[in-house]
Amino acid sequence: MPGSLLAEIEHGLVERPAGMRPTPSRLVVRWWLLWDAGVVLWVVTLLWALRDGVQAQADGVLLHALLDLVAAGTAVVTAVLVRQFTLLLYADRPPRRMLLVRLGAAERSPTARATPG
User: Around Cβ 28, how many Cβ atoms within 10 Å?
Assistant: First the structure.
C-alpha cells in the first residue's frame, strides 16, 4: 500500500490527468522495492531468531546487519523522494527559509529604568 499511495501522490504532483492511470517514477519504484525487501527480510530475521544453535545465532547477526543496510538505504531513498516531492510541490516558488535575527529578552519600556542599588 505505501508504494501505491506514493505513486498516487506523485501522479497528483506532476499534474497528470485524473483519468490517466498513475505510473510511478523510477525513484518511487526503487523506494517500493526497498520497502518490500525490508519487510520480507524483517520476517525472515524474525523467524530465524526462533532457531537454536550457535550457527543460527551467527547467521542471525548477518541477517540483522543486512536488514540494517536495507533500512538505511530505504531512509536515504525516502529523503531523496521527499526532496523531489517538495520540489514538485513548490515548483513555482521556492520554500521560504526563516532566519533568526536576534535572540534575547523582550525590549524594555522607555519608562522602566534600572535603579542603582
Answer: 23
